[in-house]
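Model it.
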Amino acid sequence: MTVEQWLGEDNQIGIDIWKKKYRDGEETWDQWADRVSGGDPIVREMIVRKEFLFGGRILANRGLSKNDRKITYSNCYVLPVDDSIESIFECGKQLARTFSYGGGVGIDLGNLAPRGAAIRNAAKTTSGAVSFMDLYSLITGLIGQDGRRGALMISMPVDHPDIEEFITVKQDLDRVTKANISVRITDEFMRAVEDGSQFRLHYTRKATGETIERFVDARELFAKIAQCNWDTGEPGVLFWDRIKNWNYLNKFDNFEFAGVNPCALV
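Modeled.
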């Protein structure tokens, strides 16, 4: 079989995508199907009939590890980052490695201290969570993936004190150019928007015990999200309580979402 027979002669877009993204070098469709099915004739026949297909990374990468290729079968990952310089740069290291294997990454900045929080080093106060977005965006642009760059989603909780800076960061078209961004919206925030009430932004830094908080007009903050999205397409929004409560693992008390992958922009 040829790819033209499988997809149809008139499906030029599908044929081009298969040739550019999924086959390895100049392998034929039959060689590709044998590799991707792992030699399983049942799986191969299901692929032929279009009854089943693996995810994109598997279609591209399954079976290539035998050639000592360092690649991933998963499309997307979430990397943790905690409130320390070591964790921030360890996240950057893992980000680069994940991109080099072909994966996309989601990072949530909710654990990072807001701008102006006291720190016990030469700087005295932190530059804030948003400042490290430029670092992660830079890494994303540097690590190639066979003709394309990695995919990065950066999110932040709506009650983080740096949220307004986060929302507007991409209004500067020269900043964070290699990442998508989304705000983690809560039911509490949406109720405040409906009520037209004040909404509390807050963060307590574990290392010092310092709590930073202030109140903002919920409707004004929501309007700022909407206006920035209208202007540049970002930030997106993630309805976080819905994500937490409606998923396959929501019955497990020891499971908690740390963030979302780059495919979760709403």
